[in-house]
Amino acid sequence: MTTDTPHTLVHLADSGLAVTAIDDVRGFEVVDVNGDEVGTVDDLVIDPEEKKVRFLQVGSGGFLGLGERKQLIPVDAISRIDDAKVHIAQERGHVAGAPTYDPDLVPAREYYEELYGYYGYAPFWASGYVYPPYPFHL
Asked: Gene3D superfamilies from the entry (predicted)?
């Protein structure tokens, strides 16, 4: 693995950048490998230097936004997108146990590295990393 520091990642909503309508999965339901609901894509976390989506920010639980838990899921976990649903290659329980996303936490290499490791993917700054063909529409 390379020791290069990854680019600073930002939320699409805060970046001033835009994605094409076909690439924008905000508001889509996220379902696990078994078809069980995980949550809804609230935002996309992007690398503004490379203009690539790195994570989906998924909100789950709560009522009317209160008590909702936010999780980041690497785009590498997406198996396909169809009918306003993002399908991931993980189980809902696995997503629930992921390192907690804290919007007040300064984006740090260690957090992203832990998150990628938890999901079983190499981080985007690793030597030989190949960006998945997002957005996987069928």
From this structure: Photosynthetic Reaction Center, subunit H, domain 2
